[in-house]
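PROTEIN DESIGN WORKSHEET
SECTION A - STRUCTURE
LENGTH: 414
TOKENS:
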């Protein structure tokens, strides 16, 4: 519990000190790192074992690999991660530290770099203070410390994903070096955690597609497109070659089954039906909520976390839960407002075309979580929202600039 309180105090003090310019911006990235680290420790350091069902299974697989070697044929999703089956057992042998403490102590040290890396990505486009606020917002959203911190392979995979985005957006290297480093990072992300790796794959593919189709995104188009397409092709082969063999093809069969056998016409019918219900209902109050939420709840009833992410259960909760849902919905509205502001005032910021394209992809993926139930089975909506903040977190901050411009005729954040 003491780690959680240290994390909260660090976050609050950091925000106060940065807002009143008491601390120099040169310390911002370290404030972000240690705020994130102690926030994560607030979850991982509870008790003498790991916290969470996923990470408990991962620990079991790591212990088995430590005792008997990595059994690639063992039929278990957690056994497919190179971190679980290979990296952690090797670290345990080299350091004589039990795997449980590697999960509890060492992996959070890696994961805490994720918001710090995002700070450097955001800083180049929005400036130091806005980037600092956005990175802190990424930490404050509960999924960061409560959910991702309970999945060991996700902690490593998200750090690799953030590094990939940094290389793509920030690294001013020769293209051959960007290609090599990005390729290695993408393949590692896929092999560490297939869901995060596939999401990174989808983000990169979506960014390239927008660069090809939309003129606004076509700055330095062909060089980047060729590089990223090559990375996607090679990493696809690496994904297939790895997952068709490990765990008896468990992950490959699952992913290919979702992609090939999902009834997409049913999803379109759900969308049309939901829109029809929402537009035809003229009753105001609880009755309207009941009709619309019943329809949407039926869409996502197999995935209750999607309903929670949308806040559809707000009237079924107590006062504390209702307040949390209101904050949740307000946050989502502010992100949309900030995104619209960013597009409208894009000349005020040093925006990378690929970053803006990534924001559009993020909104698209969040929509898929709602209207394509099988997509939400790949990764639940709360984690999807969390990962989308790698692109959308600055939009939350920019929303206050928009409000400040409207009501005070000047930005709230410098």
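SECTION B - SEQUENCE
RESIDUE ASSIGNMENT:
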């Amino acid at each position: 519990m003491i780690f959680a309180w240290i994390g909260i105090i660090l976050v609050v003090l950091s925000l106060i000190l940065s807002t009143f310019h008491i601390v120099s911006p040169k310390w911002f990235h370290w404030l972000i790192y240690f705020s994130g680290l102690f926030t994560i420790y607030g979850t991982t350091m509870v008790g003498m074992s790991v916290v969470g069902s996923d990470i408990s299974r991962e620990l079991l697989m790591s212990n088995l690999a430590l005792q008997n070697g990595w059994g690639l044929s063992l039929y278990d999703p957690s056994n497919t991660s190179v971190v679980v089956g290979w990296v952690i057992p090797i670290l345990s042998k080299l350091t004589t530290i039990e795997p449980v403490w590697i999960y509890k102590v060492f992996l959070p040290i890696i994961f805490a770099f994720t918001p710090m890396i995002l700070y450097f990505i955001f800083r180049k486009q929005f400036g130091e203070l806005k980037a600092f606020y956005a990175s802190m917002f990424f930490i404050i959203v509960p999924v960061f410390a409560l959910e991702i911190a309970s999945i060991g392979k996700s902690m490593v995979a998200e750090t690799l994903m953030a590094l990939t985005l940094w290389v793509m957006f920030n690294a001013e290297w020769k293209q051959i070096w960007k290609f090599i480093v990005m390729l290695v990072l993408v393949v590692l992300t896929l092999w560490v955690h297939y869901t995060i790796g596939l999401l990174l794959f989808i983000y990169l593919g979506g960014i390239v597609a927008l660069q090809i189709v939309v003129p606004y995104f076509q700055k330095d188009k062909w060089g980047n497109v060729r590089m990223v397409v090559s990375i996607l092709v090679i990493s696809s082969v690496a994904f297939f070659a790895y997952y068709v063999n490990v765990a008896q093809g468990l992950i490959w069969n699952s992913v290919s089954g979702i992609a090939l056998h999902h009834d997409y016409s049913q999803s379109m019918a759900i969308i049309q039906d939901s829109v029809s219900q929402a537009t035809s209902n003229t009753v105001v109050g609880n009755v309207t909520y009941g009709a619309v939420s019943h329809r949407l709840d039926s869409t996502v009833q197999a995935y209750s976390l999607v309903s929670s992410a949308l806040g559809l259960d707000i009237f079924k909760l107590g006062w504390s839960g209702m307040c949390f849902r209101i904050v949740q919905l307000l946050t989502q509205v502010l992100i949309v407002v900030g995104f619209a502001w960013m597009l409208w005032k894009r000349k005020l910021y040093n925006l990378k075309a690929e970053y803006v394209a990534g924001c559009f992809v993020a909104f698209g993926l969040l929509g898929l979580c709602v209207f394509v139930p099988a997509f939400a089975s790949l990764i639940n909506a709360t984690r999807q929202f969390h990962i989308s903040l790698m692109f959308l977190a600055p939009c939350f901050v920019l929303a206050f600039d928009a409000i400040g411009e409207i009501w005070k005729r000047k930005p709230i954040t410098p």
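SECTION C - NOTES
Residues 270-303 have pLDDT under 50 and may be disordered.
Residues 116 and 348 are 24 Å apart (CA to CA).
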